[in-house]
Amino acid sequence: MNIFTKTLSTLVGLTMAASAALAEPAIIYDLGGKFDKSFNESAHTGAKRWADETGGSFKEIELQNEAQREQALRRFAEAGANPIVMAGFGFADSLGKVAPDYPDTKFAVIDVFWLGIPNVREIAFNEHEGSYLVGMMAAKASKSGTVGFVGGMDIPLIRRFGCGYAQGVKAVNPNATVIANMTGTTPAAWNDPVKGSELTKAQISQGADVVYAAAGGTGVGVLQTAADEGILSIGVDANQNYLHPGKVLTSMLKRVDNAVYEAFLAGENLETGLVVQMGISNGGVGYALDEHNASLVSDEMKSAVDAAAASIASGSMSVHNYTDDETCPAITF
Amino acid sequence: MIDFLTLLQVLDSSLRLATPLLLVCLAGLFSERAGIFDIGLEGKLLAAAFVSAAFAAITGSVWIGLLAGSLASIMLSLLHGLASITLRGDQIISGVAINFLAAGLTVVVAQDMFGQGGRTPPLKSGGRFEPINFPGATSSKEMNEAGPLMQLYSELLSGHSLLVYTALLTVPLSWFILYKTRYGLRLRAVGENPAAVDTAGISVVGLRYSAVIIGGVLCGIAGAYIATSLQANFTKDMSAGRGFIALAALIFAKWRPWYALSACLLFGFFFAVDTRFQNILLPAWFLSGFLILVALGLISYVWKKDYLDKAVLGGLALGISVIAFMVIFSVWDTGISRQIKIPVVFIQSLPYVLTVVVLAGFVGKAIPPRAGGQPYVKER
Q1: B165, B264: one domain
Q2: How far is A25 from chain B (nearest CA, A)?
Q3: Do B69 and B191 belong together in one domain?
Q4: Does A42 contact chain B (CB < 8 Å)?
Q5: Which of A1, A194, A198 is facing B238, going by the closest CB pair?
Q6: What was the pLDDT predicted at B324?
Q7: Domains in chain A, CATH or no CATH each
Q8: Cα(B183)–Cα(A35) distance, rounded to whole angstroms?
Q9: Closest to A25 (Cα-Cα) out of A213, A241, A189, A268
Q10: Which SS3 state, helix, strand or coil, does residue A237 take?
Q11: Which of residues B271, B298, B316 is at a domain's end?
């Protein structure tokens, strides 16, 4: 895989660099790969939407390992790509090194909000808000009063998902139990559906009847096992309702596609040097409702969640953000 | 805290997690016993997972999937055989090449065939190995009310896929083949002293090829189990390093079938414990007492050993004791019965720590087949 895609992407990169007269935007996906049915795929969707609507073309690369981050960034910057969008918190360190070297290139990075570099646009999503909404739905759909959460790699960002979810659950049913598990502590935790299945089975045997997966490719295994065992699951990032129609309660939408689309649309005039918060109020996060889960979401559930969404958007209610102080009022990890 | 049913559920999960390890471990066992190191187990597992899921998805029959997956794995085995037996290349390099080949090809071919981003379409029932429920087994909903024996029967013994039982049966079968048949004797001999086998007029090359083919079949079953029984489709890198863990289990098992079963079940148990209990709380006195006991055991074992063992294992014992005393000091103010959280990474690392301990010669020496890794050159 490594050698093959590397050579391929080098070739693609070289031919593109040779032919590009006008600055093209570029996107770098994280280790999950651009078809992870989740985070990276959502980024890819946004880039593709831009290409379809404007007729433009963009450069892209899927990383195979950590060492390629800086390399890929420099290659795109040298090739004159502008703006360069990165999907994933893992780019923070490499970007901190590379961005000052290319002051004329605009960068946008998703899930990073602590760099503060003049030519970098940092995009943070309020996942805790979206997770709060699906947590409410989980608590309303649960009959046993026990719901589960399966995270991918154990990092503060994923704990933010879990923390928002637990708050939503407790808001509906203060006596509910939330079982939270992480798949692992290395990036391999994003791609281990077998372990995702085992975690789900373990949670089911502890009484969980709704499971929320925020675990990239591992989540595919979570959703599969939930469907096999006849309980409900909740997808993440992209709309995953269609994976198991009638068995996926909803999906927590993180509109990475919108963020990428907007960055590409702004092109070289991208506003940088700031942190953009994508929350419920500006359509950055939300929950998915389509024909695949219509039968699972009752009117009462929908109105309660929409009411909560409205009050979060207006600022009259706030959801605690785990990464603010590394604590969570609703659950201990 | 832990009741009988929970224990059963953990053991049940151990069995599921141990099955692919066991099959791959036995595959490595056959190959390495014949003198062919096989670091490409991971690649074969992944390739078999993809091919079996793809064929099961296209034909709707899981049996065709299993067959195709095994064939794919055998092809890779033959490639390994060609490079390392016929062409006498380096076995490690050829194995690593197979891992790369499988990791790349599976995703590229899957994307080309199905256009779902390197995945295969989800399998419907019939395209999967479904769990087999033994007669009279209670369903999981009534499990809590059932008696202990019934729980044991329904939770642990019943309800696994056919491939789990197959994997368990391959252990006595492998033992029989290796230790009770003429073929097995020759296979083991070819891994220890191929020249002697050759002198007896038996084909070294033929024996080694047959061993890697058996390994291919076993990896094929393991791959099919992951993709069509545990999961219902192939996803990128879904073997998640299990081929390498199986190699560690093989060393832990000292290249013996029954030991391989216990090693894989033990590894499976650790993985199951880590999925079920992510935060284990133990009273501080219990934890440090246990650690000190382990350290004392190490010291008493190493007492009569040579200098190197004393240095390595004595150092380990010292490290463990230091941790034990740090635990005691950290709870000195709040009382010795305070609960201490054991980090999940500790449980996760146990299989590897155990393998290192075995390699260090603690649980007897792990001696690989003598001719392992060397291509056989007749006219030497």
Answers
A1: yes
A2: 22
A3: yes
A4: no
A5: A194
A6: 86
A7: 2-126+257-278 (3.40.50.2300), 127-253+285-325 (3.40.50.2300)
A8: 47
A9: A268
A10: strand
A11: B271
pLDDT band, very low/low/confident/very high, at B140 (cuts 50, 70, 90): low
What pLDDT, in 10s, does the model give residues A105-130? 999 999 998 888 999 999 999 999 99
Query: How do residues B250-268 score in pLDDT, each as one tens digit?
Result: 988 889 999 999 999 999 9
CB atoms within 10 A of CB B182: 8
| Domain-terminating residue out of B221, B247, B271 | B271
Question: Between A33, A41, A192, which is nearest B240 by CB?
Answer: A192
Query: In which element (H, E) is residue B340 found?
Result: strand B339-342
Task: Report yes or no: B27 at the A interface, CB cutoff 8 Å.
Answer: no
Cα(B377)–Cα(A209) distance, rounded to whole angstroms? 62
Chain B residues in contact with A5 (beta carbon < 8 A): 104
Q: What is the pTM of this model?
A: 0.83
B133 touches chain A (CB under 8 A): no
Residues B61 and B203 in one domain: yes
**Read out DSSP for B82-112?**
IIIIIS---HHHHHHHHHHHHHHHHHHHHHH
Interface contact B117, partner A, CB < 8 A: yes
Which of A101, A100, A102 lies closest to A82, judged by CA?
Answer: A102
CA nearest A209: which of A227, A186, A191? A227
Contact criterion met (CB below 8 Å) for A147 and A169: yes
Which domain does B247 fall in, by range? 4-131+146-271
Please state the ipTM of this predicted complex: 0.82
